[in-house]
User: Fold shikimate dehydrogenase (NADP(+)) from marine metagenome.
Amino acid sequence: VRHSLSPTLLNTAFAEAGLDWHFMALEVAEGQAGEALDAVRALGLVGLSVTMPHKAAVAAAVDHRTDEAEALDAVNCVVVEGDHLVGHNTDGDGFLDGLRHDAGLDPTGRRTVVLGAGGAARAVVLALARAGAAEVAVVNRTASRAEVAAALAGSAGRVVGPNDVSEAVAAADLVVNATSVGMAGDGSLPVDPEAVALGAVAVDLIYHPPETAWLAALRGRGIEAHNGLSMLVFQAAHAFVLWTGSEAPVAAMDAAARAVLATR
Assistant:
């Protein structure tokens, strides 16, 4: 958690809102999520954010889970409500808000492709389906993981076989890279950028580096392409609202995150 942007995002939000609150990053060893939740109760905290590898363990330990957290079996935000700890997953809503903010895109009726089947990918698949996407096609090297992710989209979900990736991407209105390919800055590409249709929108959930080789190639072709910073900012904004009941100062949070990333 030492490199997490959450303290920057949320402490900026608290300051902008005039709240004498503080967000602190704490190291929790794998397997000790239950003890961390006990500490939340004992210390009288209003909530906490959860990152990997603890999202599933926290989902199993909270008193109640929202529908999204239940479907994903993952919690990234805990809210203390009286004597109960309520587990939320704000990743999907963060993605949708970021998509609307960056691209003005409403997924309703759209054909979409999600590259990857990990936690972030599953949150995006579920969010796109619940937002009314006509199709959510999942691409992943491991077919069984792709099937689990695609199932979250119900009748809109399908798995794309290895020989059909280019065709599925070419037919999509929205292509989302939810893999780590490109994060190392080594020029790796999650899918051929030439396959993405002109007029489509692409999102790479990676935000550091701010422009992966894939984004650069897409932008070079004139395709609207965005990184994942807005998803990060908006999922934190949702946590802020859940904890405080106040509107999140998104612009200030975004500016603070960009300032920190510029130094890395």
About this structure: The domain at 6-89+230-261 is CATH 3.40.50.10860 (Rossmann fold). The chain has eleven helices and ten strands. The first helix runs from residue 6 to 16.
